[in-house]
C-alpha cells in the first residue's frame, strides 16, 4: 500500500514540477524581455563583451553567432562562445548578463574547475542514456505482450537507472550554473557595469535562469521516484 501511495504521489510531484518548470521558463522570458532593450552602461554588444573578456583573461576564445533566441552557450570542444542572434549585436543589460554567464563557463573550463569537469562527464552519459529511453519502453511493451512480462519488466530497472543518471546530471549542473552566474556578476562589476540598476537587472536575469535548472532537477527527480515506486510495486507483486 505504501508503494502504491508513493507511486501516486510521485505522479502528483511530476505535475507540480512540470508546472514549476513552465513558470521558470516564463520568468526567464519575462526577465530577458524586460531588459533586452535597456542599454548597458558598458555600451558593448554581446560580441564585443565576449571578445573583451576573452582578451582581458588571455583565453583566445572564438566568438560566433548562433541561431535562435536564448540559445547562448559555451562549447568546450572548440573553446568558443556562441551568442544567440538576440544578443550578438545587442548592447542591452540582458545581453551582457547572458554573455558574461557563458564566459563564466569558459573560465571554469580554463581553470579546470572540478564541478564543471564532473558535470561535463555526467551530462554526456545522461544524454547518451536518455536517448535509449523511448526505444527501451517500446521494446518493453513488446516483450511484456509476448513474454508475459518477464523480460519486459527489465525495462523498469533500466528506466530507474536512466532517470537516476538524469537526477545526478541535474544535481551537478546546479552548482556549476550558480558559480558561472556569480563569476558573471563579478566580471561585469569589475569592468564598469556596477550601477545599482545594472546589478539588480543582472541578478533578475541570472536568478530566473537558475530557477530553470532547479525545475529541471525537480522534474527528473519526480520521474525517478515514479519509476522507483513502480519497480518496488512490481517486485512486491
Descriptive tags:
237 residues, mainly alpha, three-stranded mixed sheet, 3 strands
Structural summary, described in words:
This protein is mainly α. The protein is built from 8 helices and 3 strands; from the N terminus they run ααβββαααααα. It has helices spanning 2-35, 46-56, 85-88, 93-111, 114-130, 133-146, 154-190, 196-236, and strands at residues 62-66, 73-75, 80-84. It has a 3-stranded mixed beta sheet. α1 runs antiparallel to α8 (196-236), α4 packs across α8 and α7 runs antiparallel to α8 (196-236). The longest helix is centred in the last third of the chain and has 41 residues, at 196-236. The radius of gyration is 21 Å and the shape is elongated.
Instruction: Summarize the amount of helix as a percent range.
Output: over 70%
Q: How many strands?
A: 3
Q: Identify the overall geometry.
A: elongated
What structural category arises from helix and sheet content? mainly alpha
Mean pLDDT: 87
Rg over alpha carbons: 21 Å
- Tell me the number of helical segments per DSSP (H or I, 4 or more residues long): 8
Portion in strands: 5-15%
The biggest beta sheet is recorded as: 3 strands, mixed
List segments where confidence is low: pLDDT < 50 over at least 5 consecutive residues: none
The helix/strand series, from N terminus to C terminus, equals: HHEEEHHHHHH
Strand order in the largest sheet: 1-3-2
Measured distance between first and last alpha carbons: 11 Å
Short recap of the structure:
This protein is mainly alpha-helical and 237 residues long. Helices cover 75% and strands 5% of the residues. It has a three-stranded mixed beta sheet with strand order 1-3-2.
Amino acid at each position: 500500500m505504501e508503494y502504491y501511495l508513493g507511486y501516486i504521489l510521485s505522479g502528483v510531484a511530476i505535475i507540480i514540477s512540470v508546472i514549476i518548470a513552465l513558470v521558470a521558463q516564463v520568468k526567464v522570458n519575462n526577465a530577458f524581455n524586460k531588459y533586452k532593450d535597456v542599454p548597458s552602461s558598458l555600451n558593448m554588444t554581446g560580441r564585443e563583451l565576449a571578445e573583451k573578456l576573452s582578451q582581458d583573461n588571455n583565453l583566445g576564445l572564438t566568438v560566433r553567432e548562433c541561431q535562435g533566441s536564448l540559445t547562448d552557450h559555451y562549447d568546450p570542444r572548440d573553446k568558443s562562445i556562441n551568442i544567440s542572434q538576440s544578443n550578438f549585436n545587442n548592447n542591452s543589460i540582458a545581453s551582457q548578463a547572458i554573455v558574461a554567464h557563458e564566459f563564466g563557463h569558459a573560465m571554469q573550463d580554463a581553470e579546470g574547475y572540478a564541478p564543471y569537469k564532473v558535470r561535463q562527464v555526467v551530462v554526456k552519459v545522461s544524454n547518451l542514456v536518455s536517448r535509449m529511453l523511448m526505444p527501451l519502453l517500446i521494446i518493453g511493451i513488446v516483450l511484456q505482450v509476448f513474454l508475459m512480462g518477464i523480460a519486459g519488466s527489465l525495462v523498469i530497472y533500466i528506466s530507474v537507472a536512466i532517470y537516476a543518471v538524469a537526477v545526478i546530471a541535474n544535481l551537478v549542473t546546479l552548482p556549476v550554473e550558480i558559480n558561472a552566474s556569480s563569476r558573471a556578476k563579478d566580471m561585469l562589476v569589475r569592468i564598469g557595469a556596477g550601477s545599482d540598476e545594472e546589478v539588480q537587472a543582472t541578478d533578475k536575469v541570472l536568478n530566473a535562469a537558475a530557477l530553470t535548472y532547479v525545475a529541471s532537477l525537480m522534474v527528473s527527480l519526480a520521474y525517478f521516484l515514479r519509476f522507483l515506486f513502480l519497480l518496488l510495486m512490481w517486485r512486491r507483486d
